[in-house]
Amino acid sequence: MTWFDRTQPFLVLFSVVVGLMLAQVPGLSELAPNLIVPLLALMLYATFLPLSLNHFGEAFRNSKVALASVATNFLWTPVFAWGLGAIFLQDSPDLWVGLIMLMVTPCTDWYLVFTGIAGGDVALATALLPLNLILQVLLLPVYLLFFAGTLVELNPVKLFESVLWVLLIPLLFATVSRRLIRGWKGEIWFEQRLSNLTVFQILSLNLAIVAIFVSKGHTLIQRPELVLKLLIPVVLFFATNFILAHRIGRYFKFSYEEFACLICTTLARNSPLSLAIAAAAFPHRPLIAVTLVIGPLIELPIMVLISQILLQIRRREQW
After folding, report:
1. Residue 260: its H or E element
2. Rounded to the nearest 5 degrees, what angle is found at the Cα of 310, between the Cα atoms of 308 and 313?
3. Nearest to residue 59, comparing CAs of 70, 74, 50, 72?
4. How confident is the model at residue 166, as a pLDDT?
5. How far is CA 159 from CA 1, 97, 145, in A?
6. Rounded distance, CA 134 to CA 123, Å?
7. Cα distance between residue 264 and residue 276, in whole Å
8. 224 CB contacts (<8 Å, ≥6 apart)?
């Protein structure tokens, strides 16, 4: 895990504090909203640039793990996230929508780190990455229309425009850029400089978080209790999906390495992607974006704990 990976939750928290402080400066709250979507689009461009979709079909070489991952992430989890919101966030529809957006987008970076820490099958996790990416880009608008359309006002045209500008265009530019750079500089040169993308990605994300809290931070200051309401449903999501993946692994007789991979890919979430859509599609509902900023602050310590639990399972030969 790189220094940036280890410190990312603290950088997010620092960005929140900076944003809340800058929100007190006259004039900045009117300027900041214009920066949010471009910064998140740059962040996603840096995220997509190293990802190759050429090996999309490799995930299905291990069909049991791939199908278990897809079923858990894209069939069970959306319904479960909606149910958690119905129980705990019924009086806070913006937090409910934010929770759904957070949970229906499986991670495309962190989970590789945690799979490696837990001694899981990193090659299989890497093969699942483009599958997770494509399905969440395609299905996120569908989930929003189906699950969130009854909770908040949602313009389908605005939603699909947001997906086009914030997701598909950065993905297209990243795909074209990757081909051009590899053809010009070569594969080795490209791979050696991928670490620089992490810095650019995290910088763009944290600047976007600063801009979000500069423009909408007063909402959080006025109603801080709403953030605490997220803790129980988010923790329940991780606990329930851990137990579910454990049962699936036992039933299908996965190896430990396959089991650890399944745990990580069905628990870690891709909040930056959801945040980009929320900022573009719901500019006047700041608590949706706030939910997607708070989510990783809860997620990372839980994933650290889960990776250690997995290691204990392996050491004690309980699998």
Report:
1. helix 256-267
2. 115
3. 70
4. 81
5. 35, 14, 9
6. 18
7. 23
8. none
* Radius of gyration for the alpha carbons in the chain, expressed in angstroms and rounded: 19
**pLDDT at residue 100, as a whole number:** 95
Domain ranges of the chain: 59-315
* 170-223 tens-digit pLDDT: 888 888 988 888 888 887 877 777 767 777 888 888 898 888 888 866 766 777
3-state DSSP assignment of residue 269: strand
Yes or no: say if 50 and 242 are a contact pair by the CB < 8 Å rule.
Answer: no
Closest CA to 207 of 277, 293, 142: 293
Contacts for 197-200 with beta carbons within 8 Å, 24 or more apart? 197/46, 197/49, 197/50, 198/2, 198/4, 198/5, 199/4, 200/42, 200/46
Q: Around 31, how many Cα atoms within 13 Å sit in the side-chain half-sphere?
A: 9
- Residues 289, 98 contacting (CB under 8 angstroms): yes
CA 162 to chain centre: 17
What is the SS3 assignment for 270? coil
According to CATH, the topology of domain 59-315 is Na+/H+ antiporter like fold (1.20.1530)
Rounded Cα distance between 59 and 65, Å, is: 8
Beta bridge partners of 269: 106
Task: Find where tokens 């997010």 sit.
Answer: 12
